[in-house]
Amino acid sequence: MFKIYYLTLILLVTSLFTLFSSNVVFGQQEATSSQKTTFEAFWPLTAGRTMGDPLYSLKIFKENLRGFLVFGSPQKADYAVFIGTKRVLEADKLISDGNKDLADKTLEKAAEQFDIAARNINDAKSNKRSLGNVEYTIKPRLENLIILMSNIQTNKAGTVLQKIKDLKGSI
Q1: pLDDT value for 15
Q2: In which element (H, E) is residue 163 found?
Q3: How large is the angle between the packed helices 56-68 and 73-96, nearest 10 degrees?
Q4: Residue 150 clears pLDDT 50, i.e. is over it
Q5: What is the pLDDT of residues 37-93, one digit of tens each?
Q6: Which parts of the sequence belong to the DUF5667 domain (predicted)?
Q7: Span 19-45, mean pLDDT?
Q8: Distance (Å, whole) CA 24 – CA 26
Q9: Shortest CA distance to 140 belongs to which of 36, 32, 26, 28?
Q10: Does residue 140 have a cis bond before it (omega within 30 degrees)?
Q11: At what angle do helices 157-170 and 100-126 cross, to 10 degrees?
Q12: How far apart, in whole angstroms, are the C-alpha atoms of residue 137 and residue 25?
């Protein structure tokens, strides 16, 4: 008798818990696609250290060293787009922190990286080499950059946006 009472009580508590706890989950609003953040669009990339940070030069040294170890024009183009994307994310962070002068300098560095990527893509095409899988990593990144750059309002943003569009067109 005690076992039946005990099992009935457990079943009742479990079913009540299940019924009433689901309302908490269904009560949350879904995020819309217009609320896409830079974190979602560029994950796993983040701004990290930015210009003006004492350790920024160490970050640049590490990136240059890593870039020196990348071989092949398509791979160098991919790495240049990767670094350019990081510079744009840094500029976005600097703008949100209210530092437009450093954001413009950072966007100049991004433009340099996109020029390097364009040269490497043109080099690969002139030597009749395939871009391979690099094309599939570069294009989505450039598409997300175009969306982000249209929201960035600085002196250099228009130049960088045009370089990104030209680079996307050359792939």
Answers
A1: 74
A2: helix 157-170
A3: 170
A4: yes
A5: 666 666 667 778 888 889 999 999 999 999 999 998 899 999 999 999 999 999 888
A6: 52-135
A7: 57
A8: 6
A9: 36
A10: no
A11: 20
A12: 35
DSSP string, 12-48: HHHHHHHHHHHHHHHTSPPPPGGG--HHHHHTT----
Distances (CA, A) of 68 to 82, 98, 107: 14, 33, 22
Q: In whole angstroms, how far apart are CA 48 and each of 88, 94, 135, 146?
A: 12, 11, 26, 21
Nearest to 85 by CA among 120, 45, 54, 57: 45
Residue 133 in tokens: 């899988």
pTM metric for this prediction: 0.71
Q: Would you say 95 and 103 are in contact if contact means Cβ atoms under 8 Å apart? A: yes
Average pLDDT over every residue of 106-133: 88
Alpha carbon of residue 126 to chain centroid: 30
